[in-house]
Amino acid sequence: MKTADLQPHLDTLAPQFQQDLMEWLRIASISSDPSCMRQTSEAADWIANHLRRGGLEVQRIETQGHPLVFAQSPPIPGRPVVLVYGHYDVQPVEPLEQWISGPFEPTIRDGNIYARGATDDKGQVLTHVESLLTLIEAGVRLPIQVKFLIEGEEEVGSANLERLLPSLAKQLDCDVVVISDSSQYDVGQPAITYGLRGIATFELRLDGPRQDLHSGSFGGAVTNPAVALCQMLAAAIGRDGRVQIPGFYDGCRELTEIERRRLAELPYSDAEFARSIGVDALGGDQRYGALERRWTRPTFEINGLTSGHQGEGGKTIIPATASAKISCRLVPDQDPEKVVAAAEAFFHAQTPPGIRLHFKRGHAAPGMLSRLDSPYIAAAQRAIESAFGKQPVMIREGGSIPIVTRFQEVLGADCLLLGWGLSDDNAHSPNEKFCLADFHRGIAASAQLFMELGSLNHHRAGHG
Amino acid sequence: MKTADLQPHLDTLAPQFQQDLMEWLRIASISSDPSCMRQTSEAADWIANHLRRGGLEVQRIETQGHPLVFAQSPPIPGRPVVLVYGHYDVQPVEPLEQWISGPFEPTIRDGNIYARGATDDKGQVLTHVESLLTLIEAGVRLPIQVKFLIEGEEEVGSANLERLLPSLAKQLDCDVVVISDSSQYDVGQPAITYGLRGIATFELRLDGPRQDLHSGSFGGAVTNPAVALCQMLAAAIGRDGRVQIPGFYDGCRELTEIERRRLAELPYSDAEFARSIGVDALGGDQRYGALERRWTRPTFEINGLTSGHQGEGGKTIIPATASAKISCRLVPDQDPEKVVAAAEAFFHAQTPPGIRLHFKRGHAAPGMLSRLDSPYIAAAQRAIESAFGKQPVMIREGGSIPIVTRFQEVLGADCLLLGWGLSDDNAHSPNEKFCLADFHRGIAASAQLFMELGSLNHHRAGHG
Q1: Do A353 and B325 touch (CB under 8 A)?
Q2: What's the confidence (pLDDT) of residue A94?
């Protein structure tokens, strides 16, 4: 069955899809807000009940926080199992006064639906639910088993899901995980994200004198922790943007020729990117192009610096302490543990006399890279092209989605990141939106994907 | 007249001196606290009335803030004029719960008087008032004219006095300014401070992207302002403690042989100093000894660093901005304006593409150095030796007292910094104290100084 055959059904149901989405969006499921406990639970129940309409087996899995919603269609022996992952929780809505229409009063303007959660992630995950329900209602014999895992704590770090994942491994067993929680490359240019960067975070705290000292009476004889911190961090990252920590780049996988060519073909302008973020020149290691640097090269970024006097005016002290928060983005096949260990050793070696370094490890996750030649990607390409009328470009993403690498590790499954959103959708900001045409194209692409995957074999089908 | 002749008078009056001090200390003259307005004014009136008891001409000079108290004895033609400068305002008293006895309930324990302002500066400036009143009461014919300028805003920056100084120049005209608002070198070792460091402060603010950016999606292609700040500051100050800004050291006056010898003779231990501030090693330019570095060499200190995420946890951003507060201590004959201009030029040259530097100048004041061979110093040495029973050591101080350099500039007068306090007097901290024996020795030394100065000639007497 092709989308073309399903299209009349989808067209007929389009108003209903929109109504469903608006209903879900009206529920203020802000996972970080204790006053939204009832609504967050209600949003879980809404999608659970919606999934039940298709006759799926649905389960509400309680956690120490917000519940998980799990659903599955019947298994199809010998055919692939797809797990759709998404989340029903949303970001806070402040500053409220900047919203044109209320964050939980979904409103359509210029072909977009405006509401908190429209693109992140209710609107996007719903495409897969609606597509499956439509296939079932249309009497199509499902060629694969589809599972859903829709959680309520993605916006607060997914800690409970991460904790439960090993115990859920059997239930979630699948060949491929499909996630729609990201963006197309540009307006009118769909994309498949086949790579993510990993992450390693840590903090440096440098302790010097017992307490802040008078910079006049003591200055000159005391190692200033803030000065030492600047010197140590400057030693870690060169003016050319290259990280100077020995071993930092160990294992970094270089781009393949195909990747390099595809990347070069993407419409992209340094000048436009610089303008969009408000700078007059880009930074980083100039041996690599800017997209390459953002997607495929590791980074060492200072996320925060704190020492001594904050706020207005002066205070002539030698601060007792200085600290920095660091996050490194990693690429396949850097080993996060080794990177952190290398950084720790480097900074200890760099610590001058008179300073005590406290190195505090944060979280770490490796980068993710799907095989460009995987049959799942090929199926997704066909599905997207048929629904969007344009071949998707293959992109990577500089950010990290720790749960994706956890899925890979625990479930041993490939991940397909199929973003239907746009980069200006204001996820996490006021006036979050989702293009309704993309919502409907997403449903069509999802339906087509489920059908396409039916032609593949079960379990690591294409990995032979 | 020698102190010996005056001593019986001083001994008789000692209980009265102590009572006077306690009375003054009971007045909560916290200049920074608007709720202490009445008490601050009352403290000014208390010392004004006290000075009137000696028959001095006393004037309360109103300012935009707290009043100045001015007093003078009759002029003695051909003899020096001494201006005693001090302050009647005190620091705040928080944390109150750490005081053993109330900050404004002066209490004597172990030979010390405990109260806010005991050493800083009511107890110290009162020594000169009591000595003059005693000389007058004893019927001694004053060999010099003594003027007093006692202000109420020293603890909040002396801005009003600085502003009024030029218009008061004639009234304050003098040969030498005497200030007792500092410390002896050690217990039982009095000192004369003959040099102060100057100061130059400024702030760097580095602006990068328009707003904080996601360190994953953007990291690698954007110059991180926090990284740039560390690199620029690390470029400014070498690992060897030497400032790398071209021109920074221009004009620095080196120690004379006499100074170097006297400095080397001072009892001092690096290990003990390190222990006292809680570090295991000292810092700074190792070509100079630690006391030399603290007193006689310029510094470049970071007083504060601020960028991106503060507080607990992580936030994976490229911060939009990063800033540093800097204070440099300067020595004679560095030119503060030139130092700041050199720093501004250096940091502009160091600013990488993609970053906009905002350089904000703060305040600046040159260092001060009295001639070791001045007749005023010789007189003070004799006076202190006679009252304390030990020859004072000649020391310099790493801090800056901008009003002292302003006195030198506006009045053209030498300054004698005669500290009767001790470094553990807890000025600015709970349980401020002043050793009563030093209070009485200070009165004796002051009386002796006034007599000694009578043997000198008026106006730049020793500068011929």
Answers
A1: no
A2: 85
- In order of B103, B190, B389, B420, B425, the CA distances from B112 in angstroms are 14, 17, 20, 13, 10
How far does the CA of residue A420 sit from the closest CA of chain B (Å)?
17
Q: What is the pLDDT of residues A193-244, one digit of tens each?
A: 999 999 999 999 999 999 999 899 999 999 999 999 999 999 999 999 999 9
Smallest Cβ–Cβ distance between A314 and the set B219, B281, B325 belongs to B325
- Give the helix, strand, coil percentages of chain A, each rounded to 5: 40, 25, 40
C-beta atoms of B226 and A302 within 8 A: yes
Give the other-Cβ count within 10 Å of B295's Cβ.
27
User: How near does any CA of chain A get to the CA of B36, in Å?
Assistant: 23
- Between CA B363 and CA B410 the distance in angstroms is 18
Q: With 0-12 CB in 10 A as exposed, 13-18 as middle and 19+ as buried, what is A122?
A: buried
* Position B334 pLDDT exceeds 80: yes
Q: What pairs with residue B368 in β-bridges?
A: B196
pLDDT at residue B461, rounded to an integer = 41
Please state, as a whole number, how many other Cβ atoms lie within 10 Å of the Cβ of residue B23: 12
Mark out the alpha helices in B26-93 (DSSP H runs).
Answer: 37-52
Which residue in chain A has the smallest CA separation from B363?
A314
pLDDT at position A461 is: 41
Residue B359 pLDDT greater than 80, yes or no: yes
Domains of chain B (ranges plus CATH)? 3-196+368-463 (3.40.630.10), 198-252+298-365 (3.30.70.360)
- In the predicted structure, residue A116 carries a pLDDT above the cut 60: yes
A367 to chain B nearest CA, in Å? 11
What single DSSP character describes residue A67? P
> Is residue A464 pLDDT above 50, yes or no?
no
Q: Report the candidate in A36, A100, A24 with the shortest Cα–Cα distance to residue A65.
A: A36
Per-residue confidence (pLDDT) for residue B90, from 0 to 100: 94
The Cα B289–Cα B291 span in angstroms is 6
Binned at pLDDT 50, 70 and 90, residue B4 comes out as low
Partner residues linked to A396 by β-bridges: A195
pLDDT at B464 (0 to 100): 29
What average pLDDT does the segment B121-148 reach? 96
Q: Per-residue pLDDT tens for B199-209? A: 999 999 999 99
Distance CA A440, CA A6 (A): 12
* Chain mean position to CA A409: 17
- Comparing CB atoms, the residue among B220, B277, B310 nearest residue A304 is B310
- One-letter identity of residue B234: A
Look at residue A1 and tell me whether its pLDDT is greater than 70: no
Tell me what the mean pLDDT of segment B62-78 comes to: 96
Task: Find out whether A59 and A151 touch, Cβ atoms under 8 Å.
Answer: no
A293 vs B325: CB contact, 8 Å cut-off? no
Distance CA A85, CA A75 (A): 18
List A100's β-bridge partners, or say none.
none
Q: Do A279 and B208 touch (CB under 8 A)?
A: yes
Pick the closest to residue B326 from A221, A224, A356, A223 (CA basis). Answer: A224
Share of chain B above pLDDT 70, in %: 98
Chain position carrying tokens 């704190």: A306
Res. A352: pLDDT tops 60: yes
* Pairing outcome for strands B191-196 and B68-72: unpaired
Alpha carbons B130 and B104: distance in angstroms, whole number:
21
HSE-up of residue A378 (Cα within 13 Å, Cβ side): 10
In this structure, are strands B393-397 and B191-196 parallel, antiparallel, or unpaired? Answer: parallel
Element (H, E) at A128: helix A122-137
Judged by DSSP in three states, A11 sits in helix
Strand partners of residue A205:
A323, A358
Q: In a 10 Å sphere around its CB, with 0-12 CB exposed, 13-18 middle and 19+ buried, how is residue A100 labelled? A: exposed
The whole-angstrom distance between A208's CA and the closest CA on chain B is 6
